[in-house]
Design a protein that fits this description.
The complex is a heterodimer of chains A (279) and B (663). Chain A has 279 residues and is an alpha/beta fold. Chain A has helices at 2-14, 75-86, 145-151, 155-168, 174-178, 203-217, 226-230, 237-252, and strands spanning 20-26, 33-38, 47-48, 69-74, 95-100, 106-107, 112-113, 130-132. Chain B is an alpha/beta fold and 663 residues long. Chain B has 5 domains: 4-135, Rossmann fold (3-Layer(aba) Sandwich); 137-234 and 317-332 and 499-567, FAD/NAD(P)-binding domain; 236-316, 2-Layer Sandwich (Alpha-Beta Plaits); 335-497, FAD/NAD(P)-binding domain; 578-640, Alpha-Beta Plaits.
Chain lengths: 279, 663
Amino acid sequence: MDKELQELIKKLLTEKKAEWAIGYEKAYDEFSTRPAFIIDPADTARLIFNKYCINNLGLYLTKLKKNKLAVVCKGCDIATVFELIREKQFKRENVAIIGVACEGVLDKRTNKLLEKCENCQVKQPKGADFTLGNAKNSEKPKSYADVVEFEKKSSKEKLEFWNRQFEKCIRCYACRNVCPVCYCPDCFALRSMPEYLSKHVDADKNKLFHMIRMQHVFGRCTDCKACDTACPVNIPLSMLTKKLAKDAKELFNYESGADTDARPPLSTYDEGDSESDIM
Amino acid sequence: MARIGVFVCHCGTNIAGVVDVTRVAKYAETLPGVRISVDYKYMCSDPGQNTIIDAVKKYNLDRIVVAACSPRMHEGTFRKTIERAGLNPYLMEMANIREHVSWVHSDDKELATQKAMKVMEMAVAKVRRSEALSKMFASIEKRALVIGGGIAGIQAALDIAGAGYKVVLVEKEPSIGGRMAQLDKTFPTLDCSACILTPKMVAVSQDPNITLMTYAEVVEVCGYVGQFDVKIKQKAKSVNSKCIGCGVCVTKCPNRKSLSEFNEKLAPRKAIYTPFPQAVPNVPVIDRETCTFFKTGKCKICEKVCPTGAIEYTQQDEIIKEKFGAVVVATGFNIYDHSNYGEYGYGEIKDVISSLQFERLINSSGPTDGHVVRPSDHKEVKNVVFIQCVGSRDESKHRPYCSRVCCMYTAKQAMLLKDHYPETQSYVFYIDIRSAGKNYEEFVQKAQNDYGVVYLRGRVSKIYERGDKLIVKGADTLSGAQVEVEADMVVLANGLEPKANAKELAQLFHMSYDQYGFYNELHPKLAPVETAISGVFVAGCCISPKDIPDTVAQASATAAKVCALFSKEKLEVEPLIANVNQLTCSGCETCYNVCPYSAIEMEDKEVRRGDMRHVAKVLESVCKGCGACVGSCYCKAVDLKGFSDRQVMNQIETATTELSTND
């Protein structure tokens, strides 16, 4: 598939269908990949795709949005691209989506399949401009069993759990920086006039930061797990993002990144809307 | 450092009776930036206001906090005060220690005082970050929209047009006239309803300033006072302007399947129809639901007989966009549906009729040419029972309010019946007689004394049929006896309720309404025809049940309000509007989508040199300052003037800290 990928991108760049191509290349060891930004068709030989291509390259689209882009996307990453189009960050016609079939990616820290890859419905990408490879989608639907299990805990237990987690947080903002939908030109967390959030690193303030971030990405987060994988202190942020996805689905029958013309639940009002709390 | 003055009002004993105002004023002096703090009996009085003005001059104050009542009450007053003192009016904050404190915490004076101190402290925190704002002016589209073509709408339209302004009168039915057109005579003068209404209807159609749109509905409203953008759906009449109103089509139409709404379903009507002979405009419409041609594709008799070729089957519903400066809503009422009353036969006994049906029966242009006959067998009547308070003053039917007109119209109907048929006898079951109004009590007395109407104080427990008679069982609580009346017909005094779609219309304008759907006035006493939405006025029974004189008076009042609005060249509008910081805007269009007033525009702009971006912009004259965009913006790029994030964050911070009191 690498060969095919390289040829395709070479063609797009030579024919000026894209000015920049974003893909993966090998990093320092065989378990590591990193984003590759190609402008010269001759460089396309660097491009690869394998089970360690964990990054969501949708992240870079907002940063390079003034150019015509080609981007390599796993099935799950396409939702991010669609979500960004819905948020008018760039036009559909300016991004060539190269979907690659994916059997799941591995967290190199554990060498285990990422949790999101179990029961994946988009191993074979949907909605891409070009699709490479073949993969069979899971027959089982996405499971929210872990979230359901956690929801059963008492408020006190939940609070204790998250307090412990957020005590670890060093406010490095890695989660925010890798989040494709966290593209605000000036993040609230760093503002000083007014200071929406104290810059002190303590469990309370950290918790507030994460809660506000979750509220900001509700209905926009595609549950890509980039924040979870990026976290240097292993805070299970994916439990929060998964809960967001579950709530959006259950309360509003909404799925982020499914439709580029949709209106996310928190910016619409309908008389039939669920009245229950979101978090 | 700000130089803040704090002025604490006693409001007589309204505040001072609960809150220790001196302590609040003393506490204010300890706050950073506060130069002077005073308490006074009535801050809004002339001497009170002068205290503020003097203090501004003496202490060179640049920001003011008034701890008193709700800003809805006196914000305007105190803004003017500090303007007179030479300050920008928006450098004043009100701390509401009356509605939010003294009135609701009268049981704990100590805690109330502490809360008052906190509320005042929050206002000080907010005013510290207040910025001077300049007044804004907006243009006024000097055309009025009147919704509802009943007597209220007609009167409002005529009065506004009479002052020389253009009016569009929108009516849902094919003709204007409304409920008043259905009535036979009016109390207490017994003059003929149609005789006094018809000239006004004709005046509407002939007034060059009035555009009449019948068979039309308002479907969408945008904008604000001075600039309402309204979409009106003109339903297809299937008859075009060539119509001369000869009525041949109606006569020849073979389809009599539907029942006349105007005659309260007592008689059939054709598929092509005008509601009543004096209809304005006198142009029939085709009811496409029942018309044979629209259902089967065959017939077209009306087209064949029409001498002018006015029938147009291909007409489509049309959406017409219009701009208005002000709106009068006068949508009127429905009568309560008595099929909810089991004791009166669930609406299934044919000879138990509603009051409006009686009006049609006794009306000489009604379905029976004025003969009061039983709907079941068309026999003339001898004994008639009238029952009051059907869907009024009845908690069990969720209609606890009095409908105001039923006592009067029942007396009228009983008198009319006696006039037409001297040998008849009427009985009225009532709870109390409410006849407050000029010549009203005399009118009811006349019914009892001169017309021999028997008034029985009590409720009816059951009505049932025995042979061709109706047996009405009830109580006479004055004699303490059970009574049974053998009647030929029972007339119910149905109460008044809002139109079925009153709530939907209110939502179009963002007007508030009560639990029944009656529209809320801005103030029940001092602003009885205004609504909370500036530029939208209400008149008539859509606010609450009322009689014709009150309705007409209210309609004229709305006209006066509209004319006063239109007499201004420019409209002063609050500068408390949203503002986008385009440098931090990500262009996601969330605010653009949530704005209920379409006050956000997206533009492609070079926000910094070489930084071309897709960003939001606020249309200043359209923004109402609701803050929906501010809440929706996760980039925190939108701010609301007068309620900026800096002000609000300051307030929140203050609210969450302990009282720094050591007194």
